[in-house]
Write a structure and sequence with these properties.
3 domains, Fumarate Reductase Iron-sulfur Protein, Chain B, domain 2, FAD/NAD(P)-binding domain, 5-stranded parallel sheet, alpha/beta
Length: 498
């Protein structure tokens, strides 16, 4: 991060044509060797060196109508911060980014840029898109490692107070924007650490806890109070919060694990990914017995699912000492929802992919512990409602895999505790999500807003942050005007879908 800059090279890059910029190859990010990293929990990528970040930034041709900004759920001025990096102005770049995103070190690591900002990059039409996420990560790491993290200015005290339930990406984003507006903010967090899914769901090798803690520290230095081990719906209710706050935001995420109803799921050794990753990530079970949270020490692990959580679970199992780890997924790799980078890393580390396979039952030993998983081979048929080809069973193709641990990673739903204890809060009976106007993030209960996974089901970190920014605007409008019944915020275009 602190290597000297080649000023002559920076000047040369400034002078080249757009066509020449498009010929600059996408810069590779150094990372740990696969055979080394599968045995440790250290972060896999090392981040771009400074001159590589500058070269990558110079691949951007500064479009007049940048699609990358439209592809970003929080509307970051991407050409703005990239333009600063291209000139070697890292301080200017991080300040430009933080106008709209106060969690860049997190977003630069875990956001699916390939499906959002980078997907809309003009350069992608003729080659590889600008590595927006890697440049974002570089800037955030440069700022932190050089001790230059700035605390945003907060507005004059408004005399208004807002309670936020959940210290995940949605709740943190709401808190930041409300403090900028001068409101008092208190976050109520059920766990003993901040970050929500950022700390309990994402492993250390993908998002180190020190990164989350550094960015949360800035939020607290802005004057946001965080109350830990505070379960709303148990210790207090939303009604109690409304008695002392003028508005409440619900950002409780989707922490309720789903199972498939497969026979044998109640055997010992069958985990939900939620429990498996929470034990390892937040409760540091990988360091047992120095920490007091045990976890299964496995030799053969089957992880059911094909998303990022499945990849995280499989790669965690390797690091916990498993000799063989299988991903069991009922479709092909083309249909996998996991990021390409995560699939690539899992393969490099030795995870075995059992594609077009579906578990039909789990078998146990005499002690009631899972010992085998029966799988059925599948083939792809016509597309289903998701647009992906529907898996069709191949009759008579069942076979057994010897395992001693199974991790079910097929998704999560919203925890029903808050909706169940909040009168007047409408819930989608099928999904369990809180019914929320996504143009205003307002719920059916006056004064109560919601966003992130609790409003739409399990999604991405950056989408939750986008909800947080919208909710903060809506809360500001409500606190200033007292008006509740609106379909959209003043100045916003009507939703053409409505």
């Amino acid at each position: 991060m602190n290597e000297p800059l080649d000023k002559d090279e920076i000047e040369r890059l400034k002078s080249i044509s757009k066509k020449a910029r498009m010929q600059i190859p996408r810069q590779k990010m150094p990372e740990q060797d696969a055979q080394e990293r599968r045995h440790n929990f250290r972060e896999v990528p090392h981040g771009l060196p400074a001159m590589s970040a500058i070269q990558e930034a110079n691949r951007c041709i500064q479009c007049k109508n940048p699609g990358c900004v439209k592809g970003c759920p929080v509307g970051i001025d991407i050409p703005g911060f990239i333009g600063c990096v291209a000139k070697g102005d890292f301080q200017g770049g991080i300040r430009k980014m933080k106008e709209t995103n106060m969690l860049p070190a997190i977003c630069g690591r875990v956001c699916p840029q390939e499906e959002q900002c980078e997907k809309e990059c003009v350069i992608k039409k003729t080659g590889k898109p600008v590595a927006i996420g890697r440049i974002e990560r570089f800037l955030a790491d440069w700022e932190r490692e050089n001790g230059l993290m700035e605390v945003p200015t907060t507005g004059a005290p408004s005399g208004k107070s807002v309670g936020i339930v959940g210290c995940g990406p949605a709740g943190l984003t709401v808190a930041i924007d409300l403090r900028r507006a001068g409101h008092e903010v208190v976050i109520y967090e059920a766990l003993h650490a901040p970050g929500g899914v950022l700390v309990y769901g994402i492993p250390e090798f993908r998002l180190p806890k020190k990164i989350v803690n550094a960015e949360v520290d800035v939020v607290q230095r802005m004057g946001v109070e965080i109350r830990y081990n505070h379960i709303i719906g148990q210790l207090e209710t939303v009604e109690d919060l409304l008695a002392r706050h003028q508005a409440v935001f619900l950002g409780t995420g989707a922490g309720l694990p789903w199972f498939m109803g497969t026979p044998g799921e109640n055997l010992n050794g069958v985990y939900s990914a939620n429990e498996y990753l929470t034990r390892s990530n937040l409760m540091r079970a990988y360091d047992f017995p120095r920490t007091d949270t045990p976890i299964a020490r496995s030799k053969r692990v089957a992880v059911v699912g094909g998303g990022n959580v499945a990849m995280d679970s499989a790669r965690t199992a390797l690091r916990l000492g498993a000799e063989e780890v299988y991903i069991v997924y009922r479709r092909s790799e083309t249909e996998m929802p996991a990021r390409i980078e995560e699939i690539h890393h899992a393969k490099e580390e030795g995870v075995i992919f059992k594609l077009l396979h579906n578990p039909t039952r789990y078998l146990g030993d005499e002690q009631g512990r899972v010992s085998q998983v029966e799988c059925l081979r599948m083939e792809l048929g016509e597309p289903d409602a998701s647009g992906r080809k529907r898996p069709v069973p191949v009759e008579g193709s069942e076979y057994l895999i010897d395992v001693d641990t199974v991790v079910v990673a097929i998704g999560n739903g919203p925890n029903p505790l808050v909706p169940r204890t909040t009168p007047g809060l409408d819930v989608d009976p099928r999904k369990g999500t809180i019914k929320t106007n996504l143009a205003t993030m307002r719920t059916s209960r006056k004064g109560v807003f919601a966003g992130g996974d609790i409003a739409i089901g399990a999604a991405t970190v950056i989408l939750a942050m986008g909800h947080g920014r919208m909710a903060a605007r809506s809360i500001n409008h409500y606190l200033e005007t007292g008006v509740w019944e609106i379909d959209r915020l003043p100045g916003d275009e009507p939703d053409p879908a409505k």
